[in-house]
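step: validate -> pass
step: tokenize input -> pass
step: predict -> running
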Amino acid sequence: MNPAAAETAEPPVVVADNQQVGAANPPPARARAGRQPNGIPDPAAEPLRLNNPPAPVYADEMHRRLPCWMVFFEGPNAWFYRSFLVGILFFLLISSFALIGWMLLHPVFPQFHVADAALAAVKFSGTRATGTCRVTVFVDNTSPHLTTIFESIEISLIYPSTRTILSETYAFPFAQAGPNRTTIRANLSFSGVDLGADGVRSMKQDIDRGSLTLGVWIRAEVKFRNWKWRVGSIAMDGYCSGLSFQFTSGDDHGMFLNPYLLCYTYISR
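step: predict -> pass
step: emit ->
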């Protein structure tokens, strides 16, 4: 007998000796393999089967590499990446506001010019010098958007050969709504200033050669304002070098050689 046919053959029907098979006593139903006679699956014969069984999860897949954009939201270092991202966004925001403010306001430092100067009656007594000097200074605010407020302004006359301050004076505080120009007339006469032996000898030689060069130093406390926006007080210096006077023989009045002299302006602190 063929083994395959033996495996697929249905089991024989067993009839008791005292039982007659007929219309009144039909033969019992033959049960299929794995099922009960009434057709219901036999739980003991058939394994439990699910319609959508879950896919198996392996250990290496539990630690799979996340996409690059997911490191900001998942993973052990997510807080660090989020903090870094927030820092970059904050920096870009502040930089954008600063750039827009600079483009709208465009702050420009005031400019100083020595428009005119006069020096006369320079006399010497031992190591001391006396003279009369008057200087006219232009203060220009060239910014069309900002108002410049000068809280204090000091003007000094310097002999640069020995770096000696001959005289100094103060101007009244003022404000400039740009663009605007303010004129300051300063009396920088000096009397009895001790230059030392070397300083007196050097200044005498300059006058005898017919040219004396001095300098003007301007120190100011400045604020900038635009509508409600205001910058704190800053210290600004301006140095005007090359203030030259020409002397002729027999005349103690010096003629100013370089009018409208531009001063070098910088922030001191």
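step: describe -> Helices lie at 3-8, 59-62, 78-105, 196-209.
step: cleanup -> pass
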